[in-house]
Structure formats: structure tokens, C-alpha cells
Amino acid sequence: MIRIYVVDDHPVLRTGLHSIIERETDILVVGESGNGAQALAAIPTLAVDVVLCDFDLPDTDGLRLTRKLLHENAERKVLIVSGLDDSSIPRLLFDAGARGYLTKASSAHKLVYAIRQVAAGHEFVDDALPRNVLLGLSPFRRLSAREKEVAALTVQEYTTRQIAEVLRVDETTVRTIRSRVYKKLGLRGAISLSKLAARHGFTDQGG
């Protein structure tokens, strides 16, 4: 069961979120509040898997609240919902440790999917964001330079042997690095890597 805490100062929106989440058998709302102070007081007393938080709150904002929540417990998973049209906000939130960013125009299906992704330890970035923002939030940014090289060559369908020759390392090293790439990105193999790379324009940007 995924346990959710909702932070939003609009009662109508909180009710709407409840109605969406209550349809799911694996997600449960364990608490809610209308501002950051209430959330900071309540969340430590509950077993919460994901904090679903509006960015614009009466006493703070999603960025400051994310920082405070993660300062108390670095393992907390925060999913921000925002209606603001500011391309700098998503990057700041992810840099602060947020695990997901969802626009308020998103469908109920996308909301539920985002919750499950974040709860599973993956990042979620709303694909409704402008392309330049999506590129700035690419999960590939978490890879080292060498990992990016292996990922890029894998996407280009180079074999393990060919990658080893290009990078002048042995094949075992290539396999080790590639496994690390899959683990960091939460992927199962080359096909899912290629799909993720296409979505974020990874190879178009040269890594």
C-alpha cells in the first residue's frame, strides 16, 4: 500500500485528489494539510511514502517545503503539483531533492502513475512541460561522464565489444558500467534505455 500525505491549501482540490486516489486499491491518503507548517508537524508522526504537495502554499512554497522535509529525512519522496508557468521551478525542485513534478492540468491517470513511479523510487517528470525544460530535467544528468558515453553508444546500438573498442576498456568494464546505468535510471535493458533517451533528447544533445 502506498501511503500519501496531501499538502494543498484548496479544500476543493484536496477533495478532488481524494476522489481520484480512493479509486485505487494500492494507494491510501493518510493525512492532509492546507499549509507547510501543518505538514511539517504532521508528516513525521505518520508512515508516509509520498508527499503530494502543491507548489504555491499560503505560508511557504513547494521548494522550501521540499528542502525542509528532506533535511529532516533524506529518504522522503516528494511529488510536486504546480500550475505555475515558470521553466526554472522544476529544475530547482529536482536539485532540492523532489522526486516528481506534475502540472495541474494532468489527467487522473497521469497523477496515479506519477505517484506509483515516485513511490517506487523513480523520478517522474510531466511530459507536458516544454521540451527545453524536459531536457534540463533529463535523468541522464545523474550519470557520470563515462556512464553517459556507454549509455549513448548503447542507444546507438553498439555491441559490448564495439563499445569496449571505442572507449579502450575491456568488455567486463563495459558491462559493469552499463549495469550501473540501468540501475541509476531504473531501467531493465537497452530497449527501455533507448525509449528514455528518445524522450529526453539524450543523444541529440550529445549526452
UniProtKB/TrEMBL annotation:
GO molecular function: DNA binding
Domain HTH luxR-type: residue ranges: 136-201
InterPro entries linked to this entry: CheY-like_superfamily (IPR011006), NreC/VraR/RcsB-like_REC (IPR058245), Sig_transdc_resp-reg_C-effctor (IPR016032), Sig_transdc_resp-reg_receiver (IPR001789), Tscrpt_reg_LuxR_C (IPR000792), WalR-like (IPR039420)
PANTHER family: TWO-COMPONENT RESPONSE REGULATOR (PTHR43214)
Superkingdom of source: Bacteria
Keywords (A to Z) from UniProt: DNA-binding, Phosphoprotein
Name of the protein in its database record: Bacterial regulatory, luxR family protein
Example of a GO biological process term: phosphorelay signal transduction system
Domain Response regulatory: 3-119
Residues with the 4-aspartylphosphate modification: 54
Any single Pfam family the record assigns to this protein: GerE
Phosphoprotein found in the keyword field: yes
